[in-house]
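Morning F.,

Quick status update on the modeling queue. The single chain you submitted on Monday has been processed. Sequence for confirmation:
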Amino acid sequence: MSTSHPSQNAAPPRSAPRRRRRAQRLSPVQIILAAVLSIGLLLVINFSGRIARRQQMAAERQRLQATIGVLETQHVELLKARDYAASDRSVEHWAHTEGKMVREGEVLVIPIPAGLTTVTPTAPPPVFVTTPEPPPEVPPWRLWWRLFFDSDPPF
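Structure tokens below.
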């Protein structure tokens, strides 16, 4: 007696979708694991950014320290040059070398090149002086007209 009952044929299709639904759901352990992995990934990205910034700052600090060292050396050299320029010794040096001055008891000697031992007076070149012609007399009202209208008067 093999009679098929309609309720037996309908039962297997109903149980199959339930199994699929259960397979697609995530367990609480999987959710916690995904959350821990995502937080860990964010921490790794954050730490790598911090490391990169720290390296950049260290390189910048070294560059600035080198610049400071050079500037301090220049500062010391400039202070020495300023102190020397304000001293009596530098004034005496300038007076003897460029100022052509002598102390009491010294004689100034200026060497003359061999070709210039005989000095012959030469006549100065003639100077031509030209006197400019005076500008023609223009009435003041014409000057004002030109200033205001940028042209000559019509009459």
